[in-house]
Amino acid sequence: MATFIPHECLRAAPWKNGGGSTTEIAISPAGAGFDDFDWRISLATITASGPFSCFPGIDRSLMLVDGDGVQLTLDGARKVVLSAAQPMLWFPGEAAVVAQVKGITTDFNVMTRRDRCRHQLEKITAPGKLARRSAATLLFVAGEGSVLARASDQQFALARYDALLLDADDAQEWRLDALQRSAVLCVDLFT
After folding, report:
1. Which residues is 5 bridged to in the sheet?
2. 162 φ, ψ (degrees, to nearest 5)
3. pLDDT tens-digit map of 46-67
């Protein structure tokens, strides 16, 4: 059964290093911690430059959803700038990552435990159609405006930063309606 996850009901947890906060959107299995999740999806707000936490055995995807951008240095050498022109990056969780910011940024973060599952993150546009590819799919409204997600006898009105988690029992085809074009992030989770 589809689970609506309103952003207004989520709470941010500050980072230990003081450089930002994370708002967990969804995790599997429910109630898992950092050492035993299969997958975890969150929003990270970066307020100061500094290192990312290390997550050995985890594959990560980041997508910039707010702010001017963030420069990431991976393993002391590779530099990547997340910006409107190039908003997404995939990297292994064991990489040493240091962020440099000039202002506050918000990033959509997907983490999957490599030996248990994998994920695919993509940006789609509403209005449009969604053909699901996995047993678990999370939709996240990253753009301005609201999106109406509907399939069969279900429909959900999502505002910016709201999410919808679809499981194996939910319809495979969904219609995403919007009065104005809106960016929607789609995460397919494969186990």
Report:
1. 163
2. -80, 155
3. 999 999 999 999 999 999 999 9
Question: Distance between CA atoms of 123 and 34, rounded to whole angstroms?
Answer: 26
Q: Which residues pair with 75 in a beta bridge?
A: none
Please give the single-letter amino acid code of residue 174: W
> pLDDT tens digits, residue range 34-43?
899 999 999 9
Give the position of tokens 């995403």: 176
> Please, which residues have CB within 8 angstroms of residue 122's CB and are 6 or more apart in sequence?
185, 186
Spatial CB neighbours of 171, under 8 Å, sequence gap ≥ 6: 132, 151, 152, 154
Count the residues in the chain: 191
Enumerate residues 6+ apart whose C-beta is below 8 A from 9.
none
DSSP H or E segment with residue 128: strand 128-131
